[in-house]
Every structure is written in C-alpha cells, then in structure tokens.
Amino acid sequence: MFTMQPKNPTTCNQPDCNLPVCAKGMCRVHYDKERRPPTHTYDYTKDTEYTTWKKIRKLRIHLSWVNSYTQFLQDMGRRPSPEHRLVMLDPSNIYSKYNCKWLTYEEQKAYNKRTTMSQQGQK
Predict the structure, then answer these.
(1) Global pTM?
(2) CA separation for the pair 112, 12 (Å, rounded)
(3) Which member of 26, 29, 38, 77 has the lowest number of beta carbons within 10 Å of its beta carbon?
(4) Are 59 and 104 members of one domain?
(5) CA end-to-end span of the chain, whole Å?
C-alpha cells in the first residue's frame, strides 16, 4: 500500500540517519558532504612524467604547459617505459607536443644520426 511522505520531514532523508534536517532534506553532515567538492587523492609528484615536466618548465616551453602538468600529460601521454626520455625533435624550437617525443637512447641516437645526415645533404 502507498504511504504519503510528510511535506516537511524532520529527520535526514539518508538511510540510517535520524539527525535533524538542515537543508535539502539532509542533516548538516550529509548536506556538507554533498556540497564539498571531491578531494584530489592522486599524488602527481610521484610520477616520472611530473619530474620531467618540472625540469622542462623552466626552459622554453609551450604556454599551455607552463602551469599545467595535466595538459602536458594529455599532450605527451605517459612515458612508455623507464628507458624512454622526452626528446626535442628540433632543439632550436620550444618544448611542445609537436616538437617532443618519448624516445629510448637508441632511438634518440638513430634520430639524431638521421637528422644530421639530412642537414648535411641540404648544404
């Protein structure tokens, strides 16, 4: 059978809570939890990518990365392995998603060799 709820409940509408109502049908405890923004529980400072970002932040860097580790991470992604390093493809340019790549030492050597040979061929 259907029962009517009282128009002005005097206790919290959350299960197993009999505290008096404060606002929006909830007690002060539940109302404050509802209003409070979610807390940031992940510590980025332990990421190896964060360390890389902190180092390059002091250099010539794209404006979107200056104060935003999350933007850097979104653009570059996670480091594929501990052997990978962030490498500038064109050292005369700035650090940006178009000018950086995660490369291993061997890949970096091969890339540098290729670009050096192509630059010598242009002269």
Answers:
(1) 0.56
(2) 67
(3) 38
(4) yes
(5) 91
User: Is the residue at 109 inside a domain?
Assistant: yes
Distances (CA, A) of 118 to 6, 26, 108, 115: 81, 70, 15, 5
* 119 CA to centre of own chain: 37
Dump pLDDT digits (tens) for 96-105.
999 999 999 9
What angle is formed at CA 36 by the lines to CA 23 and CA 31, rounded to 5 degrees? 20
Encode pLDDT of 63-120 as tens digits.
Answer: 889 888 889 999 999 999 999 999 998 888 999 999 999 999 999 888 877 766 555 5
Domain match, 106 and 78 both: yes
CA distance readout (Å), 39 to 26, 32, 78, 95, 113: 21, 13, 23, 31, 48
pLDDT at 68: 87
Integer Cα distance of 116 and 108 in angstroms: 12
d(CA 26, CA 14): 7
